[in-house]
Amino acid sequence: MTDEDYLGYLLDLTDPDERVAVAAHLAAHPDAAAHVARLRAALAPLAAERDEVAPPAGLAARTVARLAAYLVEHDPRPPAALTSPEAIARDVAPHLAAPARPVESTDRPEPRAVGGRFRGELVVAAGIGLLAVGLAFSFVGRARHEADVLACQKNLMTLHQGLTGYADARGGRFPQVGAEPYPTAGSFVTALADAGQCPPGFHVNCPAAAVGPAATPVGYAYSLGHHAPGGAVLGPRRSTDPADENDLVPVSADLPAAAPTDGPTSPHRTGQNVLFAGGHVRFATTPTVGVNGDDIYRNHFGRVAAGVDRSDAVLGRGGDRP
Length: 322
Hints:
It is built from seven helices and seven strands, in the order αααααααβββββββ. The longest helix has about 50 residues.
């Protein structure tokens, strides 16, 4: 047995089994019992009403002063930045003399001041919420725009069916405007109707512009034709030869997104759908989608008029003339 075992026995700090073992050992060893008796006598002051014995006056302050002196001696910071041990003891002593307050339970959540950490978390949460709303609106707007573009493309492909039927009966020529009874670009629809070639389901106006009670109908631009070598104006035509670049000539489109003259513009804002003679439709963000990268709303001279040659396609609004 060691002194640690005997002290645990005397101070009642051992479990019952160890206590029984120590008692049996002392009963069998008189020398050990005498040693424990001397330990008991030395520990007697601690066992006699310990809570009622007041500590010596100033013990806490002296202890703090000793700790402060030790820290000053061993702290690597410059001594000038430190407070003297006596000042530390003087500042701490009143707090040591004050009665201890009960420790509150930490089970409850710590209250957060609006101006502290909670405000930062609130700002972050609000930012995330606004970002999510912005993304949602952006997604909805993009989806609506794509739906409008597709509806318009479908309408232009339906228009091409009527243009093809018209051309098949007239040597491959689409309706030509510039003379009576079809003087302006918008009268190409009348030419199709007169020929019985207005296909079912075709809308004269772009479907994307016919939304809402205050919607303004926006029609399609149509080819003003081009000048032949002799000076006469000819309308667009389609070709049965796959190698013929004529199929790449625009014949109709939304109104331009950026107007070359005063008037309505494309309802798609960022571009326009373009119908080519070969029957395909393309959404273009710029008007330079002619055969040679030409502006499809102006001729080579920058005018809204008939093209200077067959590849110079110019699409006019309803009231434009060649």
